[in-house]
Amino acid sequence: MVPPHPEPPADLVALKLPVKERGCAWWRSHRAIHDPIFFGRSGDNRYDAPGGEYGILYLAAEEAGAFVETYLRNPLGVPVNVTMAELEQRHFTTVEFDAPLRLVDLTGPGLARMGADNRLTTGDYLLSQRWALALWNHPERPDGILYRSRHDPDQVCCGVFDRRADARVGRTLGPLASPANVGLLAGLLDRYGVCLLT
Q1: Which of 26, 43, 68, 176 is most open to solvent, judged by the fewest CB atoms within 10 Å of its CB?
Q2: Could you list the residue range(s) of the whole structural domain that residue 99 is in?
Q3: Please, are residues 36 and 28 in contact by the beta-carbon 8 Å criterion?
Q4: What does the alpha-carbon distance between residue 171 and residue 180 come to, in Å, rounded to a whole number?
Q5: In 3D, which of 109, 112, 115, 103 has the Cα closest to residue 141?
Q6: What's the pTM value of the predicted model, to 2 decimals?
């Protein structure tokens, strides 16, 4: 039997974090009625603050990452279907920052250096939230967390803490259902085996 994933170590504050700088335009899938820049505090997502200590903005390095983090959340073994109405409700927008983000890298050997493993990106949300809070509290004051999507590990995502107040909207593709995005949508549906319903 696999032992449970450890809690953040007591000496985490003394460890040098595996921080990676990433400067790029990040992608976000967001409801069309809302601004794309939103630092959530609901406690419902993997790296949310367990007690509302900070807000966090979830982004993906590519359109595909934003797609899987939005639409591929069905339980394992359940076919993924998406409707045109669902696609119309969300826009795909880039989010940019004035300077590169300093992100705690959970995509490689940094996990082991901190006494963690990949269950932080695939397992229990409450545990991941406690780790995220410990990283947010770290003296190095990282801007957020870099991780791989649970549904497609090729896709790199990040959660940006609200201490980065320089987030701004870049370009907007609008909804994937738009005729201008037909090629992108077809590629994503094919890549992930998602069925489009009318």
Answers
A1: 43
A2: 24-75+93-171
A3: yes
A4: 14
A5: 103
A6: 0.94
Other Cβ atoms closer than 10 A to 140: 12
Residue 117 lies in a domain: yes
Minimum mean pLDDT range among 106-110, 142-146, 157-161, 194-198: 194-198
Q: How far out from the chain centre does Cα 190 lie?
A: 22
Domain count of the fold of the chain: 1
- Region 186-191 average pLDDT: 96
Does residue 141 belong to any structural domain of this protein? Answer: yes
Residue 129 three-state SS: helix
On the question of pLDDT at 48 being above 70, the answer is yes
Rounded Cα distance between 104 and 145, Å, is 5
**Position 196 in a domain:** no
Q: Has residue 133 been placed in a domain?
A: yes
- pLDDT of 30 strictly over 70: yes
pLDDT for 74: 66
